[in-house]
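ok, trying the design again with the full structure, not the truncated one.
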C-alpha cells in the first residue's frame, strides 16, 4: 500500500517545523520532505537537512524542468517540493509530510495526489507574535512581514480537513498521529488487508470464501 501524503500549513511561527521534526523523529514510517529554497540559511540550519539552499537560477531551471510538485514565492523567496523525492517515498509505503504554505497546498489539491490537509494553529495572535520574535532568527522587517501575512493565511483554513492547536508540542504531535492513524483505516482499493478477503483486482465484487 502506498504511503499517505500529509500537508501541514499555518502562519509562520506557529510551530510547524518544531511539530514536524518531532513527528518524524518519533515515527520511523514518517518522512519529513526537505524543500528547496532560495532564502539564505538561518544560523544553525544545515544544507540538505533543513532545506536544499539553491540559487534563484538553479531554482528557475528546476521549475522549467517540471521538477517541482509545487512551488511558490513566500515572503520574497522561492520555496518548492521536489516531485521525485515525494513520489519515491510514497511508493515505498512511507508517509510523507509536506510543511508548505497555503499556495503550495492549493497546488497539491489541484494535482492528482490524494492528501490530508492539516492547518496548525497558534494558541492566540499574541502568542504567535511572541513565537516569531522569540525564535530569534529573523530581522525586524522579516518579523513584521511574517506576522502581517498570518491573517491572510488563516483565511485559508476552510480549505483544510483538520485544525490542530499547537498549545504544547507533544499534544499537537499526538493529534496529528491520531489523524494519520484514522486516515490509514480509510477504505482504499490498495489496502493490503483487503487481499485477505477479496480476489486481487476484484475488491468489492467477489469474496474469496
Ligand atoms: P514555524 O515552522 O511554524 O515557522 P517554528 O517551528 O520555527 O515555527 O517555531 C517558532 C518558535 O516557536 C520556535 O522558537 C519554537 O521553538 C517555538 N515553539 C514551537 N511550538 C511551541 C509551543 N507549543 N510552545 C511554545 N513555543 C513553541
Ligand atoms: P521559513 O522561511 O520560515 O522556513 O518558511 C517560510 C514559509 O515557507 C513557511 O510558511 C513554510 O511553510 C513555507 N514553505 C517551506 N517550504 C515550502 C515549500 O516547499 N513549498 C511551499 N509552497 N512553501 C514552503
Amino acid at each position: 500500500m502506498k504511503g499517505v501524503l500529509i500537508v501541514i500549513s499555518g502562519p509562520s511561527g506557529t510551530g510547524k517545523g518544531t511539530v514536524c521534526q518531532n513527528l518524524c523523529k518519533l515515527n520511523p514510517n514518517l518522512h519529513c520532505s526537505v524543500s528547496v529554497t532560495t532564502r539564505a540559511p538561518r544560523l544553525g540550519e544545515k544544507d540538505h537537512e533543513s532545506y536544499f539552499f539553491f540559487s534563484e537560477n538553479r531554482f528557475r531551471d528546476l521549475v522549467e524542468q517540471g521538477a517541482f510538485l509545487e512551488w511558490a514565492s513566500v515572503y520574497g523567496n522561492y520555496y518548492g517540493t521536489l516531485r521525485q523525492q515525494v513520489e519515491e517515498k510514497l511508493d515505498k509505503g512511507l508517509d510523507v509530510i509536506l510543511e508548505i504554505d497555503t499556495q503550495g497546498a492549493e497546488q497539491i489539491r489541484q494535482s492528482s495526489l490524494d492528501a490530508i490537509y492539516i492547518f496548525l494553529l497558534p494558541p492566540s495572535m499574541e502568542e504567535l507574535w511572541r513565537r516569531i520574535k522569540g525564535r530569534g532568527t529573523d530581522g525586524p522587517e522579516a518579523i513584521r512581514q511574517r506576522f502581517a501575512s498570518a491573517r491572510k493565511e488563516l483565511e485559508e483554513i476552510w480549505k483544510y480537513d483538520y485544525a490542530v492547536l499547537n498549545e504544547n508540542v507533544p499534544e499537537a504531535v499526538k493529534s496529528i498521529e491520531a489523524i494519520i492513524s484514522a486516515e490509514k483505516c480509510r477504505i482504499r482499493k490498495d489496502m493490503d488487508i483487503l487481499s485477505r478477503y477479496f480476489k486481487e483486482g476484484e475488491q468489492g465484487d467477489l469474496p474469496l470464501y
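Keeping the full-length input from now on. The chain has seven helices and nine strands.
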